[in-house]
Amino acid sequence: MNKMCDFDSIVIGGGMIGSSIAFGLAKQDEKVAMIDEGDNALRAARGNFGLIWVQGKGEKNSSYADLTLQSAKKWPRFNNELMALTKIDIGFEQKGGFDFCLNQEEFDERIILLKHIAENSNEQFSYEMFNHEELAKKLPKIGPEVVGASYSSWDGHVNPLLLLRSLHKGFQELGGKLLTHSVSDIKYNDSYFSVQAKNSIINSNKVILAAGFSNQNLAPKIGLKMSLFPQRGQILVTEKIKPFLDYPTGLIRQTNEGGLLLGDSHEDVGFDDGTNLQTMQQIAQRVTTIFPFLRDVKMIRAWGSLRILTDDRLPIYDYSKTCPGAYTVSSHSGVTLAAIHALDIASYIVKDGKLPISLNCFSAERFND
Ligand SMILES: Cc1cc2nc3c(=O)[nH]c(=O)nc-3n(C[C@H](O)[C@H](O)[C@H](O)COP(=O)(O)OP(=O)(O)OC[C@H]3O[C@@H](n4cnc5c(N)ncnc54)[C@H](O)[C@@H]3O)c2cc1C
Questions:
Q1: Which residues line ligand 1 (CB under 6 A)?
Q2: Whose CA is nearest to atom 2 of ligand 1?
Q3: What pLDDT does residue 114 have?
Q4: Which of 167, 175, 230, 264 has the greatest number of C-beta atoms within 10 Å?
C-alpha cells in the first residue's frame, strides 16, 4: 500500500452493490473502508423486492443474460459463505420462479422472449412454459383468468434487508471499516485517491464508486462517466397468512414469515419515491386476478422506491483510464448480482487492476454520443 494511504480500497456507498463488493474485497484481505451516507440518501437497497431473477433478463444483450445466470448459479455458495460468517439467515430460497401471463398474447410473447434469450445464452439459460392446468398443479390457488406462466429453475428470493445487514456484518467481521458520512469530493493524486467525507480526508489506492445516483456527480471527478435516471416501483405488504406460495414470482412473493410482497410497477416520476392509490390499486388488481382468494387479505403497508436505471437498462461496470484504480458499478439488479459482485467483481478489482474483457460492453463509454 502507498505510504500515504489509510486503506487499500475505499468503497463509496454501502447499499446493495457497495456492500457486496466491499464484502468481497475484505474477503481477499484488502484493507477496506466502506463509506455510506446513511438515512438521508435514496436507497434502493432498502426498498426492493428481494428477487434473484434470471428469466427475461438480457433480451438484447446476451452478455447480460450470462452475467445474471452466472450470479444466480453462484448464489447458493454466496449464501453459505455469508451464513457461516454472520449466522444471519437471509431467507434465501432458489426453487425456481414463475412469471404469470393473463392472456394468450402475453403467453405467446413470453415464449418468443425466453426462446430468444435461451438461444443466445452461453451459460445455458433454460426455462419451461406451463399452461393453466399444468400451473394449477404447482399453484392450486390460481384464478381462472391465468392463461399460464413461464418458469425458470434459477430464480429465487431473499429478504433484502437481512441480506444488507448480513453483508455489513460480514464485511466488518472480515476487518472492514464502515463509516457513515456523505462523500462530497474525490481527488486523484497521481498514484492514490483522497476522498473527502465530512471534515476528514481519507486516502486509498483504489476507489470503487457504488453510491447509487450519487455516482453521477462523483464519477467525473475520477475520469469516469455515468448516465442514470430514476424509475419508481411501489411495493405493497400484506398481513401474514398461511404459506400457500412455494415459489417467488415477478409480481408476488411470500416471505418465510408469511407476509406477501406485491409489486412490479414502473413509473416515470423523477425523484419522487412516494406512493399513490392508483398504482397500488393496479398492483392489487393484477394480484387478485392471479390469486382471487387474496381479495380478503389485508394490506398493512406500502412504499415507493427508485430503481437506478441506464437508458438501455444494462448495468455499468467501468474503470478509469486516466485515474488507475478507480472503478464504478451501477445496476438495477443489485440483489440478483450480489453473488457475482462479491465473489468475482471484487477479485478482478484486487487481482487484475481492471475489469475482464467480458465486461467491456458494460462500460459507460457506450453512452458517448
Ligand atoms: C422497487 C424496487 C424493486 C427492486 N427489486 C429488485 C429485485 O427484486 N431484485 C434485484 O436484484 N434488484 C431489485 N431492485 C434493484 C436493487 O435494489 C438495486 O439494484 C440496488 O439497490 C442498487 O444498489 P446500489 O448500491 O447501486 O444503490 P443503493 O442500494 O441505492 O445504495 C446506494 C448507497 O449509496 C449511498 N450514498 C449515496 N450517495 C452517497 C455519498 N455521496 N456518499 C456516501 N454514500 C452515498 C446511500 O446511502 C446508499 O446506501 C429493485 C429496486 C427497486 C427500487
A1: 12-18, 35-38, 41, 43-45, 47-51, 53, 182-183, 210-212, 214, 233, 235, 305-308, 330-336
A2: 48
A3: 96
A4: 167
